[in-house]
Amino acid sequence: MVYAVVRAGGRQEKVQVGTIVVLDRQSAKIGDKIELPAVLFVDGDAVTTDADKLAEVKVTAEVVGEERGPKIIIQKFKNKTGYKKRQGHRQDLTRVKITGIK
């Protein structure tokens, strides 16, 4: 069983070949290939965490689509002053499919 843990936009994701992962917005178009940096690589019983060996590990992914995350409501309120503020936010996301771990 071969898998890797990759750094993706401030988070870490465990990926295998064929896994579809949702990342923060990438600057690639749909159909483009991107490369993700590996933090951990597991090949059967061999676990690799050494930075020099991880530099040789290549995790490639193909951009499947772009989407937006769920709406998050930000509300601020101060008692007795009449101050209310309401703001919404939707994060831009990119859906990628892992095509290879070498």
TrEMBL record:
Which species is listed as the source? Answer: Microbacterium aquilitoris
Q: HAMAP family annotated for this entry? A: Ribosomal_bL21
- The gene that this protein is the product of is rplU
Q: Tell me which family the UniProt entry assigns to this protein.
A: Belongs to the bacterial ribosomal protein bL21 family.
- Domain of life of the native organism: Bacteria
Chain's role: This protein binds to 23S rRNA in the presence of protein L20.
Q: Does the keyword rRNA-binding apply?
A: yes
What cellular component terms from Gene Ontology apply here?
ribosome
Q: How does it assemble?
A: Part of the 50S ribosomal subunit. Contacts protein L20.
Entry keyword set: Ribonucleoprotein, Ribosomal protein, RNA-binding, rRNA-binding
The root-end lineage is: Bacteria, Bacillati, Actinomycetota, Actinomycetes, Micrococcales
Q: Which InterPro entries match?
A: bL21-like (IPR028909), bL21-like_sf (IPR036164), Ribosomal_bL21 (IPR001787), Ribosomal_bL21_CS (IPR018258)
PANTHER family reported in the protein's UniProt record:
50S RIBOSOMAL PROTEIN L21 (PTHR21349), LARGE RIBOSOMAL SUBUNIT PROTEIN BL21M (PTHR21349:SF0)
User: Which protein is depicted?
Assistant: Large ribosomal subunit protein bL21
